[in-house]
Amino acid sequence: RDTDPGGADDKQRQLDDVRLDLTGTELTTDQGVRIDHTDDALTVGERGPTLLEDFHAREKITHFDHERIPERVVHARGAGAYGVFQPYDDWLAEYTVAEFLTNPAVRTPTFVRFSTVAGSRGSADTVRDVRGFATKFYTRQGNYDLVGNNMPVFFIQDGIKFPDFVHAVKPEPHNEIPQAQSAHDTFWDFVSLQPESLHMIMWLMSDRALPRSYRMMQGFGVHTFRLVNAEGRGTFVKFHWKPVLGVHSLVWDECQKIGGKDPDYNRRDLWEAIETGQFPEYELGVQLVPESDEFAFDFDLLDSTKIIPEEQVPVRPVGRMTLNRNPDNFFAETEQVAFHTANVVPGIDFTNDPLLQARNFSYLDTQLIRLGGPNFPQIPVNRPVAPVTNNQRDGYHQSFIHKGRTSYFKNSLGGGCPALAAPGAEVFSHYQEKVEGHKIRKRSESFKDFYSQATLFWNSMTEPEKKHIVAAFRFELGHVDHKHVRQAVVDQLNHVDHNLAVMVANGVGVNPPEREVTPNHGRSSPALSQITMSLGG
Ligand code: HEM
After folding, report:
1. Atom from ligand 1 closest to the CA of residue 73
2. What is the ipTM of this complex?
3. Is 75 tagged catalytic?
4. Is 149 marked active-site?
5. 460 CB neighbour count, 10 Å cutoff
6. Four-CA torsion 242, 247, 250, 252, nearest 10 degrees
7. What is the pTM of this model?
8. Three-state SS for 306?
9. Fewer beta carbons under 10 A from the terminal one: N or C of the chain?
């Protein structure tokens, strides 16, 4: 490659000729000047003013003054680890050209960051919240990021609502209370006015929101993505991580006590497991749906508030990831890692899920400010193992030393510009989906059943799990000052399950709904046997 990170080669050789016999353990300035005194600034006399010419003191303090970068606007608190992913066999090659998913001889390095969503960087681990499960695969075809959560659905259907949603979830703006929990008026006001959030709310009030360990947590890509095979044929796909240790949660009482005694509980557990060689493992699985079955479901595959029930489309195992190394430096690696849903490789593509489309804009945009300009892909944790050769130049924190006199395409002078991939070479080419329509702001009618899957979730719970959910609603909603908000949420829950609504109402001081409403639950089941048959599941 002609873009050599750090420009190490020639310059280094030249410098090695004059290398001093230093051990590298002595204190120096950033310019490599050795220092033997760092406790006292340079002053005029023993009790006089500090001198501006004390470059060591100025550099030391200046660097410190600039140590902080903005925390992530969401998912600010996290813990990361390196690992490796390896497919079990090549069965998925029928559906995708992504080598890291289909070549069992290839071990792909990964970096995973687990996170909470709402709290700030210093908040506690054991709060009731969604957990992020973001994986960077450093594949030979480029970096692929699977930026998922530990719950398979999301609060909203279209990313244009994300700023409203996050403003409602985060601590309230006048007093920055409460930190990292959903027990507040703005959050529940949002929920009561946006019934599309109800399915996710059921997950959030369940024990899934209190993972005992990051090693015992599922991960989901949430959206329907698309796999593309060598013939250019697309297949819809949902990605699943299943922890080999099984899924385990804390109970609320434990969370509150642990939160006081060890706010780093999940972070510490991950670190210690890896340090002691008990490497966390997760199986990657996929649910596949042929394009011909796009409309075979009673929900829309592009709606991120819906799961594809596993009874209808089974999860088929693809491979396994083992997390086997802790980062050396939290800031350099875990804080500076930058995941992006649009980081895809040949064989994986997007769908028109409006939540995904917004994410494909948002991550790069936020990282440009969080990581200080356009060159953050050069930070070691973000750098692909695949060669990077292009005409992108300059900018803050540029550490490639680009050689040659040209940096434009096309050119006839040579000298540094990469050539286009040769015909027939494997490249990323966007899936050729046919789209047509009028420009409108209107949600599809196929997105408008907000309750069926929330009910499905509730009905799938055991009695102890149901009790935990009711207790969670009572605790969280019980902290809401505005009675009309509590009432509105209970009225929404009546669309999910009448008994649930009554039990919650009785715990939060509002009127229980009198009658069961008949939500839109009884819609006919699709011809799903065809789907499983056509994919051999
Ligand atoms: C961060 C997941 C929806 C914007 C994250 C992270 C995860 C995640 C795991 C943390 C990444 C890390 O560890 O560094 C999800 C999932 C979503 C979703 C699963 C829905 C299915 C959205 C939407 C938007 C958004 C709709 C915006 C329109 C962001 C931003 C960050 C973030 C700005 C901070 C990224 C950074 O500073 O590097 N998300 N998110 N997310 N998400 Fe999302």
Report:
1. 34
2. 0.96
3. yes
4. yes
5. 10
6. 80
7. 0.94
8. coil
9. N
